[in-house]
């Protein structure tokens, strides 16, 4: 599966046990692979901060989703309306805004970049 000629699927998608985010603007084939394999969970088409590299921009697990502060109000509302009940969405003010590149997490722990702001670490602990 590729997205506009790139095989870096993780750049254009974020997957948890409860939901999947995929970038808008992909081919029908790109979406059909996700929707076919993930029949039991919602596959949400979105952008983050107006860009399609949502895997790089988000950190997520089945409890929550963290997005950068430049995520638009419209994108944030779309996510809140589309995600399963109980999934918390939180915007963070962080100079290292490619959150998916600096936070590795699952439902039990998170590993973060050492230069992450203390406030962001607290949001991660509370949200994820």
TrEMBL record:
State the UniProt keywords alphabetically.
Cytoplasm, Initiation factor, Nucleus, Protein biosynthesis, Ribosome biogenesis
Entry's localization field: Cytoplasm; Nucleus, Nucleolus
Q: Which species is this UniProt entry from? A: Macrostomum lignano
Output the Pfam families linked to this UniProt entry. Answer: eIF-6 (PF01912)
- InterPro entries in UniProt: eIF6 (IPR002769)
GO CC terms of this entry: cytoplasm; nucleolus
Classification lineage: Eukaryota, Metazoa, Spiralia, Lophotrochozoa, Platyhelminthes
Q: What is this protein called?
A: Eukaryotic translation initiation factor 6
Q: What does this protein do?
A: Binds to the 60S ribosomal subunit and prevents its association with the 40S ribosomal subunit to form the 80S initiation complex in the cytoplasm. May also be involved in ribosome biogenesis.
Q: Which family does it belong to?
A: Belongs to the eIF-6 family.
């Amino acid at each position: 599966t590729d997205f506009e000629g790139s095989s870096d699927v993780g750049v254009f998608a974020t997957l948890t046990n409860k939901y999947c985010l995929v970038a808008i603007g992909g081919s029908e084939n790109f979406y059909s692979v996700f929707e076919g394999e993930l029949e039991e969970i919602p596959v949400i088409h979105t952008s983050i901060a107006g860009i399609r590299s949502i895997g790089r921009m988000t950190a997520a697990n089945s409890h929550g989703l963290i997005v950068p502060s430049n995520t638009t109000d419209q994108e944030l509302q779309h996510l809140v309306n589309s995600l399963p009940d109980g999934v918390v969405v939180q915007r963070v003010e962080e100079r290292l805004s490619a959150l998916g590149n600096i936070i590795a997490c699952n439902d039990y722990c998170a590993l973060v970049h050492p230069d992450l702001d203390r406030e962001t670490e607290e949001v991660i602990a509370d949200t994820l």
